[in-house]
Every structure is written in C-alpha cells, then in structure tokens.
Amino acid sequence: MKSLFVLFFGSIFLYSSAIAQPINEEVSSGTIFDGEPYLVINPTNSDNMIIGWMSTAKGTLAIRVRTTFDGGITWGNEVVMPHSNPTFQSADVSMTFGKNGVVYLEYIDYTRSPHDSGLIVVTHSGDGGKSWDKPIEAFNYYDNTIAPIDRPWMVVDNSGTASDGTIYITTKPVPWNTLPSHPYLKYSTDNGKTWSKIDSVDGGEYPAGIVAAPMVSPAVSSDGVFHAAYASWDVKKNPLPRYTLANSTDKGVSYTRTTIYSPTTGAKGDTLSKVGYRLAANPLNPKNLVFVSLDSRNGDYDVYAFVTTDNG
Predict the structure, then answer these.
(1) What's the rounded Cα separation, in Å, for the pair 104 and 118?
(2) In terms of DSSP bridges, do strands 79-80 and 118-125 run parallel, antiparallel, or are they unpaired?
(3) I want to staple 312 with a disulfide (CB 3.0 to 4.6 A). Which of 93, 171, 245, 292 is the partner?
(4) 10 pLDDT higher than 50
(5) Are 157 and 166 a contacting pair, CB within 8 Å?
(6) Beta strands 184-188 and 18-19: pairing type?
(7) How far is CA 222 from CA 156, 160, 162, 283, 298, in A?
C-alpha cells in the first residue's frame, strides 16, 4: 500500500536527554498510487495549509485536495477535483496563494489513450481550500499544433504594483511531441476567469532548440516583474546547453534573456534522480533571485543554488 505523508517539523524539546521526534501525519488514503504532492501555506494564516496530489483511488487518476487550519494536526475531508470529461484523467497539480488569502489551483485534464485531447484548468478557493469554484479552461490541447499541456506551473503577482493580481501559468508540449518544442505562457488579470492568448517564452539568442521538454519555472518579484527559467540548447546559438532566465515587465509581450549557467548532467549509475529545477524570487528584494538545480559536475548529482542580486 502506497500512502502520501506530510512530515511536520515542530519545535525540538529536550526531555531527560531525549529529543522529541517529528510526527508523520498520513494525509492520503489511496491503495494504488498517491504521488506528486504540492503543498502551499496561506500568507494570511500560517496554520492554513493545503495539499494537492494525484491519486488512482477509485480507479481513475484524479487530483485530490485536503486542507488544515491547525498547522497540520488535523485535516479536512478529501476534495476530488472534477474531470472535464468522464473519460479524462488528471495530473500535474500546482497551487499559489494571492496575498488576500485566495488560493488558485491548476491541473491537467486529458485523455491518456488515445493522446488526442486535454486541457489545463484552473479553480480557486476563498475559504482556505474547503470549497472550490468550477474549474475554468486556461490551456487547450489545440491552442497550437504541439499540444502545450504538460508540466504547468502557476504563480500570482502579489507585488502591489499596477500588475498586482495577475496569474501566470507556464507549460510545455506533451512528451510525444516532435521537435522543435517551446515553453509557453498565458496570464489572467480577472482571477482566472479569462486567459490571454498563448505565447512562447523562449526566443532570440535563447531558443529551446533541441530540448525536448523545455519546462518553465516561473516567479514574480516584488516589483511586479515576471521571471521564467527554462532549458535552452541551440548549437547555432551556443554549443553548450544553458538554463536561461527570461524577464518581462509587460506580461510576456517582450523579454530580456540571460544565461543562468550551463549544466553538467548525466551522472553514471544514478537513475533515481528527478532532474528538475526551481526559480524563486525574494519577496523583500526584487533584484534577488535564486535558481536551484541538480548538476553532476563532481561526478554524481548534487543540489546547487545559483544566486543573482542584480535581476539576472
């Protein structure tokens, strides 16, 4: 039996030279597969946390959500996110909180076989995750010819600037798409009710090129600038693969792009590593970004953090 656990680290107390141990709290109850969890904390109430994951409980792959209002001691009932079509399955959940305590959740809803249709949908909750509005389509399998509905990530602008409240979703083509691939972006300025046209994030001297899965990790800094980190490799532009930072002050209409670093990957004998990456923006310093990734420059995979204090 596979179950999903959230590990909570509390304060450490000493009792007769013994150290209190953290408590494992079971959150899921599936009997086949529960995985790819995503956890967010309400900025207006740190005891309110929401976890979403994909689960094969009851025979269909669906997104399930639970919430806590006491820091994880107790959890509410599971909420199962609905399918757009009864034959669809769901995956790749992510969430983000607005500064007002409204939480947004997105996931893929798609046909697994045949691979011919799917959506990225968005819902939101104003009561800390206890109830959710009807999901709204943000991306469609047919937004372009390469089915841009894989590995979506979502961030919201909490900057207090003119772009405050803008929701961004980045995504990439499905795995079976043929090259070339591109990372993509859409945004919403009305709480997810409507979405912009689809646009690519790569370009100029930094195309995705021969990267088959150019996933984007998005972030918004405290001055309202949208940032996107993605993989780029076009030997005509640069012989080395690169992680690229793309910055936009106009919601993706235009970008300035720079190289974060050229990775060394492919550690021998290491087949269990999840070679992902994450971009984060410092909420107190708009010029400070951190990019975290795996790299095997020392012979095996290690976790590296690359830091900029001048906006990349």
Answers:
(1) 20
(2) unpaired
(3) 245
(4) no
(5) yes
(6) unpaired
(7) 11, 8, 12, 5, 35
For tokens 């909490």, name the residue: 158
Distances (CA, A) of 139 to 187, 201, 282: 10, 15, 29
Residues 97-148: tens digit of each pLDDT: 999 999 999 999 999 788 889 999 999 999 999 999 999 999 999 999 999 9
Calpha distance 104→64 (Å, rounded): 14
Q: Residue with structure tokens 């994880």?
A: 72
Angle at 90 between CA 303 and CA 293, to 5 degrees: 10
Please provide residue 58's backbone torsions phi and psi, each rounded to the nearest 5 degrees.
Answer: 60, 25
For residue 45, which amino acid is it? N
- Three-class DSSP labels, the chain: CCCCEEEECCCCCEECCEECCCEEEECCCCCCCEEEEEEEEECCEEEEEEEEEEECHHHCCEEEEEEECCCCCCCCCCEECCCCCCCCEEEEEEEEECCCCCEEEEEEEECCCCCCCEEEEEEEECCCCCCCCCCEEEEECCCCCCCCCEEEEEEECCCCCCCCCCEEEEEECCCCCCCCCCCEEEEECCCCCCCCCCEECCECCECCECCCCCCEEEEECCCCCEEEEEEEECCCCCCCCEEEEEEECCCCCCCEEEEEECCCCCCCCCCCCCCCEEEEECCCCCCCEEEEEEECCCCCCEEEEEEECCCC
**Model confidence, pTM:** 0.90
CA dist., res. 225 & res. 66, Å (int):
32
- Give 19-67 pLDDT, tens digit per residue: 566 778 888 877 788 999 999 999 999 999 999 999 987 778 999 999 9
* Omega within 30 of 0 (cis) for the link into 114: yes
Q: Provide the CB-side half-sphere exposure for 122 (13 A, CA).
A: 29
Other beta carbons less than 10 A from residue 96's beta carbon: 22
Cα 178 to Cα 146, 204, 245, distances in angstroms:
8, 21, 24
Separation between Cα atoms, residue 62 and residue 90, nearest integer Å: 5
